[in-house]
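Next up, a specimen:

>
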Amino acid sequence: MSIKYDKIGNDYNRTRKPDPYLTKKLLEHLAPADNGLYLDIGCGTGNYTDQLQKRGYQFIGIDPSEKMLKEARLKNSDVQWVLGAAENTGLSNSSVDGIIGSLTIHHWTDLNAGFLELNRVLKPNGNIVIFTSTPKQMKGYWLNHYFPKMLEDSIAQMPSLESVKSAMTDNGFEIVKAEPYNIQANLEDKFLYCGKQNPEMYFNEQIRHGISSFSSLANRDEVEQGLLKLRHDIDSGKIQEVMKSHQNDLGDYLYVIGRKNR
């Protein structure tokens, strides 16, 4: 994971900006107290860590990529930025009041080890908020029509909702709820399905570079051919048919909220 994000770290901030709505939802689910200390695990360049810190909450940001953390430190020197991983945070027992993890769990080497470690550092009654996507959700992306191998490889690394819940409950968390999220037209954080409603976004090389599926998992020839096909379908209007055929009620992403009860 660190190698992957060291590669894209320099340009990551150009398109992966903190989204106001997603920030609001993270706060809502985390329910932080003014005097608490919170952890953003897999913080990347610290976009959401920075936003939450600026709203008056004290945060630690942990990421395995030194290049990403270098960008984060430039953004906010008041946050404690730490090189580490979900499986090994280096933090003391019961040292944080809550945890967020946005689009990170598919990069963990071991879900059980990650949630065991996060349970160890979380205080009793603390909340953990995971923002992710599931294989079932991703199979409903219309991107599958144009980039099938890339999506297949992306889906393969995503843990199912069942496996996430199981790893959480097996390691001391109670599942509070799982809440689906659908892409908003004004989304500012350009992650994988950001172009759900605006396919033109995928012709922006900077946007593709900030998406790990395109920058690390994709085959160059497939991307080129997929973009040509997408261009043709946009110009002909066929894209509307493709998008309609992939409509579903699963949501595009998901918040999984848990709590440590002891």
Summary: Residues 2-260 form a domain with the Rossmann fold fold (CATH 3.40.50.150). The first strand starts at residue 37 and ends at 41. Confidence is low (pLDDT under 50) at residues 1-10. The longest helix spans residues 220-236.
